Amino acid sequence: MSAAPQAPEARGGWTVGEEAKRGRARRRHVGRAFAAITIVPVVLAVAFLATLLGGIVTDLFSWQVVASRNSAESFAWRQAPFGGDAVVRLELAAQGVDAAEIESTLDDPEQRRRFFARNRVEFMLYTDQGPFRWVVTNMRDRSIELVDLIPGFAQRSDLEAALEPGQRLLLNPWLDGGFFQRVASRNAVSAGLKTALVGTLIVILGVVALAIPIGVGTAVYLEEYVAKTRLARLLEVNIANLAGVPSIVYGILGLSVFVRLMQFGPSLLAAIFTLTLLVLPVVVIAGREAIKSVPSSLREASYGLGATRWQTVWRVVLPSAAPGIATGVVLAVARAIGETAPLLLVGAAAFVPYMPEGPFSPYTVIPVQIYSWISENSAEFRHVAAAGIATLVSVVGALYGVVFVIRRRLERTRA
Q1: Given pLDDT bands bounded at 50, 70 and 90, which one contains residue 1?
Q2: pTM (2 d.p.)
Q3: Of 3, 138, 182, 218, which has fewest CB within 10 angstroms of its CB?
């Protein structure tokens, strides 16, 4: 006959079972409170990011009242669906130029160059003559009033009513196709990002070409070949410390070594080498962590099949570590794209109106160009800078998208 179950021992007016329930309830409350606290920084980060992006997007557009040096006419989209020379013909005709002279201007390379050096074909979202119209703006147009995007919607009727002969109201999208086709200029109307964008792409491609083989090779050597001696540990600590060194220090190093000692001057080559030194510690650390994550059983199986150490590293370890290495490389490249201080020290120019012609050419990059525009004492350059910032953010976002796709494919291949 089984013994009857005994009642829980009483303690201070409640049973042990009740005390356990109270303890579980307290732990649940603490867990919920901790979850609520940890979500606060996430919400704040998203709010700050949304505010930043919202500010950039609204600065990409502005309402302008302009006293035109041209005809002050705009042209419907259907009159010139593809813009370009068709809009120029309409503008010159509106100025009273006869058809023969118009064709002569467009056919003569020198006259054509002079026209496009002074004028810019733009597609405006709104004009006082209607929405979605082509406008030919002149770098000598006089700005009467500049209103931000959202306040401009409320003031549009007043702005149109106050227009005088020869003036026009425009809703200008500063980030357009022409923005990437124009070089730097002291005038906001004709300022573009072409030289800075090309300079950034050249520098980043050079950094990638140097940082990947050197960084990944160093990571493989430290993880697969070097014995865990005191010297190896000292080297590991120094690499970790280098990853936290301020970028301005790398700029001073690049100025001393590449610009002056090696006499590269303020050139693309000096910028590539300086940024490579900046990102190498990040690539090495990411590569080592990715290699460490490869299970030892894979190496042992490879050795068991008769593979050498190099064959094991090349055919087993690196393919398995490739997703982590790719992530580290993109993080390093994203940091390099946004750097300004070290490039200013090694000679990145704020104003370069021509394309680089070789590795020793003067250059500029997007962050330096943005800094130059922000420094200008002009409200219009604030909108030009916003277009540059949007481009920079888009380039970094595209990089992250590419590495996400590459990582997924590598993970599927490995699986």
Answers
A1: very low
A2: 0.82
A3: 3
